[in-house]
Amino acid sequence: MPRNKIKIGSLEINTYVYIPPMAGVTDIAYRKMVRLFDKETLMSTEMVSSKALMYRPDQPVMKLTADEHPVGIQLFGHEVEAMSNAARLAEEQGADFIDINMGCPVPKIVKGKDGAALMKEPDLAVEVAKAVIDSVKIPVTVKMRLGWDSCNKNSPELAKRLEDIGVSAFTVHGRTRAQAYTGSADWEAIKLVKENVSVPVFGNGDVKTPYDAKKLLEISGCDGVAIARATMGAPWLSRQINEYLETGSFSPEPSQMEKLDLAILHVSEMIKLKGEYVGIRESRRHLINYTKGMPNSSKIRGDSGKVTSFEEAKELVERLRRELSLCISNTCNE
Ligand SMILES: Cc1cc2nc3c(=O)[nH]c(=O)nc-3n(C[C@H](O)[C@H](O)[C@H](O)COP(=O)(O)O)c2cc1C
Fold it and tell me: Which of 58, 59, 64 lies closest to 43 in space, CA to CA?
């Protein structure tokens, strides 16, 4: 069955799933792991500071590989000149779209008027988006929250204003900035944005399974679903969701042994990308995520947190493999 097509300005995508930016996570290695399972998943880089790009235009997070489309670069900032400059650099890098971050709740970001702080200043948000749109030919999207806090849920009005100046799609995380990650995402509230604009909207927040994805789309009326945390250690999830939405069923997740192969592949990709010292340290979280739910998982978590070389990571994975085989032969239920 053919995939549904979503048009983000001039970009046509064949997926319901967007894996949105996660700082420290959605790097080239991560994106490569996802594309092993589903080449068409829409993805984005980690957020990039437009101000930092003024001083150092060659930020490693901006790098894209030739075979990883469709992919966007997410920018944050509130200064028109810096954002226009960053947008041009992102376009030169080969990004298919530019995403503007209007949702980051982190204090050091919002203190500088960036991220979710732009939702408190809609005129500035529109000015920044207009400058970015005017600087590039590729589509520009915006990722936002429901609003600053429960008294200021202005996402439907802000999205409409941004659509009017040419924003091509939105990702809406169903929480306010004040909520950060507490409570649960309000998919009904995302619907108010979807109803107020005619460009595609990706609903975001707390989707963990293909069933959740379907429910979010039913409740919010969104065109697609953005899934962040649940894809960590589960690069196959976007494929499962696309399959489920298209056919009503989905392929099983990899076996625990296969997950160990994926874990070590991810670690090796991280080392290729960042060198052994940084790569292995940044891989620890991935090792933990791939091995979630395996026997002795709390011990694995501790051991994964201590690996300092590729050799140690491989030894850890081999040990887990032996333990798993023993478990399987003893039908361990732990
Ligand atoms: C580790 C981490 C880093 C994140 N970094 C970014 C970011 O750079 N830009 C952004 O717009 N959102 C960022 N987010 C938010 C996610 O894109 C997403 O909106 C949020 O996690 C809710 O979706 P989920 O419930 O599927 O995880 C980050 C989230 C996490 C967990």
Answer: 64
**Tokens standing for 228?**
């962040």
Contact 46, 61 (CB under 8 A): yes
- Contact indicator for 51, 82 with CB cutoff of 8 Å: yes
6-247 maps to which CATH number?
Answer: 3.20.20.70
pTM above 0.90, yes or no: yes
User: 3-state class of 229 per DSSP?
Assistant: helix
pLDDT tens-digit series, residues 39-95: 999 999 999 999 999 999 999 999 999 999 999 999 999 999 999 999 999 999 999
Q: Which CATH class is domain 256-329?
A: mainly alpha
Q: Is 151 a catalytic residue?
A: no
Distance 229 CA to ligand 1 centre (A): 7
According to CATH, where is 1.10.1200.80 located in the chain? 256-329
Residue with the nearest Cα to atom 21 of ligand 1? 228
